[in-house]
Specification:
two-stranded antiparallel ribbon, mainly alpha, 5 helices
Length: 130
């Protein structure tokens, strides 16, 4: 499990908040689940910014968990996957898909009940906004 405890989520969101700006990435929506992350972003001036962001986020999360739990090895199974969003309709569909992920996974009954996504901040109930 990548996000085994609330502290893991808090740390990842804190790192995401810091690093998105450092790499010139605009974050539209996000969702952390037990074993993966969804990010919907807009690239800045450098296309390489996305790869750098993901690399540093993954490295920080791995180092944090290794230190906390005395574990070895990697925290992530494979390379991240990315898809290009080219239309407004697809952008909206992606936002819905990401923020409703915990509902579809039966983690919560309503997206508002899940603290580790952008949903609450986007609808004006800032909890863990990035």
């Amino acid at each position: 499990m990548v996000f085994a405890a609330e502290e893991n989520c808090q740390r990842y969101v804190s790192d995401l908040r810091e690093l998105k700006n450092a790499f010139g990435i605009k974050l539209y929506v996000y969702c952390l689940t037990i074993n993966h992350v969804h990010l919907l972003v807009a690239l800045g001036k450098s296309v390489a910014g996305l790869g750098q962001l993901i690399k540093v986020l993954a490295a920080r999360a791995t180092r944090y968990r290794k230190k906390l739990e005395g574990r070895t090895g990697t925290l992530w199974e494979s390379r991240y996957k990315s898809s290009l969003v080219q239309t407004a309709n697809y952008l909206l569909a992606c936002c819905r898909y990401i923020e409703l992920n915990p509902v579809r996974a039966c983690m919560v009954a309503d997206a508002v009940d899940y603290p580790w996504s952008s949903y609450n901040a986007r609808v004006g109930h800032a909890v863990n906004g990035v």
